[in-house]
Design a protein that fits this description.
Elements lengths: L20 H23 L9 H7 L2 H18 L11 H11 L2 H14 L4 E7 L5 E7 L10 E7 L6 H4 L3 H8 L5 H6 L2
Antiparallel strand pairs: 1-2, 1-3
Helix pairs in contact: 1-3, 2-3
Bound molecules: manganese (II) ion.
Amino acid sequence: MAFELPKLPYELDALEPHISKTTLEYHYGKHHQAYVSNLNNLLGGTEFENADLDTIVKKSQGGIFNNGAQVWNHTFYFMQFSPSGERTPQGKLADAIKTQYGSFDAFKEEFTKAAATLFGAGWAWLALDKAGKLVIKQESNAGNPLRDGLKPILTCDVWEHAYYLDTQNARPKYLSNFWEILDWNKIGERF
Ligand code: MN
C-alpha cells in the first residue's frame, strides 16, 4: 500500500509568526510530499514493498532509506507542534528532564546547542536509550535514532529548507522560534 502525506492537525498559517504559512506550504506541501512520492516510486519490486515505515527506517539503505526516513522524521516533526498547548514539559517527561539536565532551561540550552552546531543538513534529537536515559543526538541528512535502538521523543529539522524562507541564514533565530510552538502534551505521550 502506498504511503500518504499525513494530514496536519492545524492550518498552514496556525504556527505564525514562528513558522510562516509560506514555509509550511513548501516544507510540508512540497518537501515532505516529495519524500512520500519518491519513497512510493522506489519501493516497487523491492524487499520493502510491503514493509511498514519503522522497518524501512531501521533496515533499508540508499534512496529508500533517505526518503523513508525523511517521511518518518517530517511527520514526527510536524506533529509535535500546535498553535496552542503546553509550552513546557509536563508530568513524567518534565521530571526526567529535570533529573537529568537540572532544569528545562538547561536542557533547552543543550538541545539548542546540538541543533545550532550540526554542520550542514540534519536533525537534532531527544531520544530515550535502552537504559531509560534521555540522550541528545545530532544526525546528518535523514538520520534517525531508531537505527541505534533508541526511542525518539523530540526532533528539530535543521535542513535550511526548514527555515530559510523565514529567517534566511539565521538558524539561531529559527531555533528560538522552535520552542514557542512545541506541544509538550503531545511530546510527553512519546516518552
Ligand atoms: Mn525538512
